[in-house]
Amino acid sequence: MHRNSPAGFCKYLFFIFIFLLGSFTQVSAQKKRVDLEKEKIENQKKIEETNKILNETRNKKTVTIGQLNVIAQQIKEKAKQISTYEKEIRIIDLEIRQTENAIKDLQQHLKALKQEYAKMIYNTAKANDTYSKLIFLFSSNTFNQLIQRIKYFKYYSQARHKHVKQINKIAEVMRLKRRQLYAKRQERSQVVSTVKEENNNLNGLKIVQESTVAELSKKETELLDEIEERKKNLKKLEKLITDLIKREMERAAAEAAAAAKANAANAAANDKKLKKQADINYTSTNFAAAKGKLIWPVEQGFISQRFGKRPHQVLQHVTVENLGVDIQTNKGQKVRTVFEGTVTAVAEVPGMNQIVMIQHGDYYTFYAKLKTVNVKNGQKLKAKEVIGEVYTNDDEVSEVQFQVWKGNEKQDPEQWLHNK
User: Fold this and answer.
1) I need a labelling partner for 409 at 20 to 30 A (CA). Which of 152, 237, 245, 258 fits?
2) Closest to 403 measured CA to CA, from 303, 331, 330
3) What are the structural domains of the chain?
């Protein structure tokens, strides 16, 4: 049946009605909103963590690098949170445009439907004139034609009822969409207000950061002494690590040589050696496959000092170097192993406090700045097992240094840890 005929037009509108109703669900938009909500919750959690860390460092009356690190992290997290809200606004704007377009389409279809219905009423009124109706019926040339004309009158009556029903349906959908549009506009207004408030907070943090940098800049001599002391401590730590790794590599080579010698005289010893070597390789392979997925050595915290060489936070003309990453956290935080392995060394280095070295096949992880250690050399550990407690310095900064080595090559630990 043609779309312009009353029944065809009615079916066409009903199809449009179903189509529009289905398209308004916006499944993909809703999924994005759910993802953004999770992101907001995660960001808020990180902001609360840094607030707690900052409050601990504020126990000191003088400003410190530790405080500056936390403020910088707060700015980073706050900027992320604002970005998330801005994404949400863009999604709401899209939903508003789609709802407005839907209402516009419904209005056009409702107008067309009413016009068609008005024509139908007019034609029905003319046809319902008793004299005209009878003439129309009895002027039929054949009995079949008479039957068809009777059906025509019946069809017209049914079509009117369908049109009325369709008009009511579309009007109902329009009312629903208008309520949704009002709710979305209200929601957008609330999110925009939140963004303004967050931006004010962010600007406040930036002012605090600038004043902290300015105050720390006045203590250049003291900072330079700290940098020099840290450099010496890192050198000592690096020497200890390289010596430990060299020792482990020499021991492994000696064991392999002894196993090879025993193999010539004893096949069983060879099998045992091969099995042991396979276990070591298996562990190495597992660790390598975990790159970018390792758990953090502390449950809470953020990277305060990154790997490698970079300008100092305050003295930009000074370059500092790090063998791993420093993770600033809360006082009393437990330090845990990031992967299963064997403790190959427990030692102490001035300025770095107690350290633990864990072997994972060809890889090693190091945990420095520990207040206490509760593992011993040769102990086999699983991932997440506690190895000690983080050290808190005189500035009330609680920080653990974490390093990853492959043989005697330093790795960037940030590339190994999962993205928090």
Assistant:
1) 258
2) 303
3) 6-217 (no CATH), 220-415 (2.70.70.10)
